[in-house]
Specification:
- It is built from 18 helices and 22 strands.
- It is of the alpha+beta class.
- Strands 3, 4, 6, 7, 9, 10, 12 and 13 form an 8-stranded antiparallel sheet that branches. Strands 5-8-2-1-11-14 form a 6-stranded antiparallel sheet, with no helix packed on it. Strands 15-16-18-17-21-22 form a 6-stranded mixed sheet, sandwiched between helices.
- α4 packs antiparallel against α10, α7 packs antiparallel against α8 and α11 runs antiparallel to α12.
- The protein is globular and about 95 Å long.
C-alpha cells in the first residue's frame, strides 16, 4: 500500500511539473493529389483561446514570423509559389513599431509541390513559429506527408505531428494516420483577408492629392476642363466627357495596381518586403526619386510614348478620352512616378489586393478635381494661379522621400544586425533632413527650379514653423526620449549606441563601468547574456541573481521591460540589489561543435545558444514560456519558495516578489 501511494504521489507530482510545458496549438496535416505529379500539402492548427500564432508575413523587427521548411527538396520536388495562409489579423504593435500579422482560433497553411523524383515516398516538413498570449513560446513541429500510391483518385492523408519541439523540447507521440479516399479535393484555401485596406486607401488618397499639387499636374486642370466645356456642344455633354475622363484616369492606375498584383502574385512582394536586398534596392530607388523632386534631374518616359498616345487622343469619343487620360499619366510621370512607385511597393508589401486599393485611392484624388471643376466651371476662378509654389510642393515631397528612404535602409541594417544605422544615427539624419526642409521653407535655401522671391507667404511660414517644431521634437530622441509620434520609423531604443541615448554611458548612473562580460540593457541596466559569466560576477559582489528568460522577438518581454522595469521602485532593485542575467531563447547563433550536446531532458540536439538556454529553462524550471523570471542564490536555488518563477505581472506584484527573494538571500 505504501509503494502504491508513493507511485501515485510521484505520478501526480510529475504531472503537475510537466503541466507547465505549454503547447497551445494542435496541428494536423493532409496531402491531396491535384494532378499526375502535383500535390497540395495542408497544415491545419486549432489554437487555444486568447493565444495567437504569427504569420509568415509579419515584418522584420517584430515578433518571429512562421517559417515553413521542407527537407530533401532539391532533388525530389519543387515548391509551386509561396505557402498560402488562411484568414489572418493585422494590428499595429507599438512595442516593436510594426504591423504584426497573426492567426487566432485556427490557422491553415497550404503549399503546392511538384514531384520531380518519382521514387519519393514521403515529404518531410517543419514549422517554426512563435505563439503568444501573456507569455510567448517558440515552437518547432515536424511532419511527414506520405505520397499517395493510387493515382486514379485523390487520396487525403491526415496526420498528426510526427515530432513536436518547443524550441528544443521534443516529444514523440504515436503517429496516427487515417486514409480518406475522395473523388475531388476536400477543401480549398480561403484567401487571407487583407486588413488595413482603408488605411492604405486613405494614405494613397492623400498622396494623390499631393501629386495633384505638383507642377506637372496642377496646370492641366483648367486646360483640360476648358477643353471639355468649350469643345462640347452642350454643358451636359462637357460634364459627361469630363466624368469619363476622370473614370479613365482611375481605370489606368487601377489596372497598374492589378498588373503588379497579377505579375508578382498577391504575396510575393509581401515576402520581398522583409528581404534585406529588397530594402536596400528600395532605399536607392527612393534616393533617386528624392533627387528628382529636389531638381537634380527629371525622370521622364520616352517622348515617343507621349506623342503616340497624344495622336490617338484626337480620335474622339470614349476611346479618345481614354487616350487623353493616358497622355496625362505619361506627361506627368516626372512628378507622379516617384509617388506611384513608393505607393505601389508599400501597398504591395501588405500583400493581397492592397496595390489595387492603393492605386484606386491615388487615382480618385487625381481624377476628382477634373470631374468637379467640369460640373462647376465657376470654381476654376477660385484656383490659385500656377507659379513657384508648385515647385515648392515638389521639393517638399522630395525631402519626405529622402527621409522615408532611410526607413528601408534601417530595416536592412536591423535584419543584418550591423549596427551601422543605430537609433542615434537615424535620428540625426532625420533632424538634418527636416531641419534643411525648414530652412528651405523659410527661404534660406534655394534649389535649381525655384523662382526668385522677395518674401514668403503666410502659408509657407506656417508650414515652416510646423516642420521646425517637428525637427526640435526629434532632438531629445538622441538622449533617449521615446518619440511616440514616430514610433514606427526609427530603430528601437535598444538598437542604439546606448539605450539611454546619445551622450550617455548606457546606464542611469552615468559613472558606472560595465563589468567584464556585461552589456547595457533596457533602461541602461547592466545585463549579462551568459549565465556562467553572470554567476561569476554575482559571486564577486555577493548579490542574488535575477534570471530573465526572454527573446529578441518576445512582445510581452518588451512590455514588461517598458512598463514594469521602468518603474522607479523596480528599476532601483534591478540596478542595485541583483545581478541581472538575460538569456535569449531565440538566439540563433550556433554553438561551437565542441559545446553541442543531446539534451537529457528532451532528447533534442542542442545546436544554438537559444537551444542551450531553452533546455536550461525546461530542465531546471519545467516550463517553456517567456518572459520567465527566477530569483536565485549563488548556488542556483530559487529564493521564492511559494512562487519560484514569475512571468507577466504588474509593478506591485513584481516588486513584492523581488523584495521577498532578496530578503531571504540576505538572511
Amino acid at each position: 500500500m505504501r509503494k502504491l501511494l508513493f507511485i501515485l504521489f510521484a505520478f501526480l507530482a510529475f504531472t503537475k511539473v510537466n503541466a507547465q510545458i505549454l503547447d497551445p496549438a494542435k496541428w494536423t496535416t493532409k496531402i491531396e493529389k491535384k494532378s499526375a505529379n502535383t500535390y497540395l500539402l495542408t497544415f491545419n492548427a486549432v489554437i487555444e483561446k486568447d493565444w495567437h500564432i504569427y504569420s509568415q508575413f509579419t515584418p522584420d523587427g517584430g515578433p518571429l514570423p512562421l517559417e515553413v521548411i521542407f527537407k530533401n527538396q532539391k532533388e525530389n520536388f519543387t515548391l509551386v509559389g509561396k505557402a498560402k495562409e488562411s484568414k489572418t489579423t493585422t494590428a499595429f504593435n507599438d512595442i516593436f513599431g510594426v504591423n504584426e500579422t497573426f492567426f487566432h482560433d485556427k490557422a491553415q497553411i497550404q503549399q503546392e509541390i511538384k514531384i520531380i523524383n518519382p521514387k519519393i515516398t514521403k515529404i518531410e516538413a517543419e514549422l517554426n513559429y512563435q505563439v503568444c498570449k501573456e507569455v510567448c513560446i517558440n515552437l518547432e513541429k515536424k511532419f511527414t506527408f506520405r505520397i499517395p500510391l493510387n493515382s486514379n483518385i485523390a487520396k487525403v492523408v491526415i496526420l498528426k505531428a510526427d515530432t513536436t519541439r518547443v524550441d528544443t523540447l521534443v516529444s514523440k507521440p504515436e503517429v496516427k494516420e487515417t486514409n480518406i479516399y475522395v473523388k475531388s479535393a476536400i477543401e480549398t484555401t480561403k484567401p487571407a483577408s487583407q486588413k488595413g485596406l482603408w488605411s492604405i486607401f486613405f494614405i494613397a488618397f492623400l498622396s494623390g492629392f499631393a501629386a495633384l499639387l505638383t507642377p506637372c499636374v496642377f496646370p492641366m486642370i483648367p486646360m483640360t476642363v476648358s477643353f471639355f466645356t468649350k469643345q462640347s456642344k452642350s454643358k451636359a455633354k462637357g460634364i459627361r466627357h469630363a466624368i469619363i475622363y476622370g473614370i479613365s484616369i482611375i481605370f489606368i492606375y487601377v489596372v497598374l495596381g492589378f498588373l503588379v498584383t497579377w505579375i508578382f502574385g498577391a504575396d510575393a512582394l509581401n515576402a520581398l518586403s522583409t528581404n534585406v536586398w529588397f530594402n536596400i534596392i528600395f532605399f536607392i530607388l527612393l534616393i533617386v526619386f528624392a533627387a528628382s523632386f529636389l531638381g537634380a534631374f527629371e525622370i521622364m518616359l520616352p517622348n515617343s510614348w507621349a506623342n503616340k498616345v497624344d495622336s490617338q487622343a484626337d480620335r474622339g469619343g470614349i476611346v479618345g478620352i481614354l487616350f487623353m487620360a493616358l497622355a496625362l499619366a505619361i506627361v506627368s510621370f516626372s512628378c507622379t512616378g516617384p509617388i506611384v512607385g513608393t505607393l505601389l511597393v508599400d501597398a504591395a508589401s501588405k500583400g493581397g489586393i492592397a496595390p489595387i486599393i492603393g492605386m484606386l485611392g491615388f487615382s480618385l484624388a487625381l481624377a476628382l478635381p477634373f470631374m468637379l471643376f467640369a460640373m462647376f466651371p465657376g470654381w476654376l476662378h477660385s484656383l490659385p494661379r500656377s507659379g513657384g509654389w508648385l515647385n515648392t510642393v515638389k521639393v517638399v515631397l522630395g525631402f519626405l522621400e529622402l527621409a522615408l528612404a532611410f526607413k528601408f535602409l534601417s530595416n536592412a541594417d536591423l535584419v543584418l544586425q550591423l549596427h551601422l544605422l543605430e537609433r542615434e544615427v537615424f535620428l540625426a539624419i532625420w533632424i538634418a533632413v527636416f531641419g534643411a526642409l525648414a530652412l528651405y521653407l523659410f527661404g534660406k535655401i534655394t534649389l535649381p527650379h525655384d523662382s526668385p522671391m522677395t518674401h514668403i507667404s503666410v502659408g509657407r511660414l506656417l508650414m515652416g514653423l510646423l516642420v521646425l517644431t517637428f525637427t526640435i521634437y526629434l532632438i531629445p530622441g538622441l538622449w533617449g526620449a521615446p518619440l511616440k509620434l514616430i514610433n514606427a520609423f526609427p530603430p528601437p531604443i535598444e538598437y542604439s549606441e546606448s539605450p539611454m541615448g546619445f551622450g550617455s554611458s548606457g546606464v542611469k548612473n552615468s559613472t558606472a563601468i560595465l563589468p567584464e562580460g556585461a552589456k547595457s540593457g533596457p533602461h541602461g541596466l547592466v545585463v549579462f547574456d551568459d549565465y556562467e559569466k553572470g554567476l561569476a560576477y554575482a559571486k564577486t559582489v555577493h548579490k542574488p541573481i535575477m534570471l530573465d528568460f526572454t527573446g529578441y522577438a518576445c512582445v510581452n518581454c518588451r512590455k514588461m521591460e517598458n512598463n514594469v522595469w521602468s518603474d522607479d521602485r523596480v528599476f532601483s532593485i534591478l540596478n542595485n540589489e541583483v545581478v541581472l542575467i538575460s538569456l535569449y531563447v531565440d538566439d540563433k547563433r550556433e554553438l561551437p561543435k565542441r559545446e553541442r550536446y543531446i539534451s537529457k531532458t528532451t532528447g533534442a540536439e542542442i545546436e544554438t545558444i537559444g537551444d542551450k538556454w531553452t533546455d536550461f529553462m525546461i530542465s531546471k524550471y519545467k516550463t517553456n514560456t517567456q518572459p520567465l523570471y527566477v530569483l536565485t542564490d549563488l548556488e542556483g536555488k530559487s529564493l521564492n519558495e511559494d512562487k519560484p518563477t514569475i512571468s507577466y505581472v504588474g509593478v506591485e506584484e513584481y516588486e513584492s516578489w523581488l523584495k521577498i527573494g532578496i530578503l531571504k538571500f540576505k538572511k
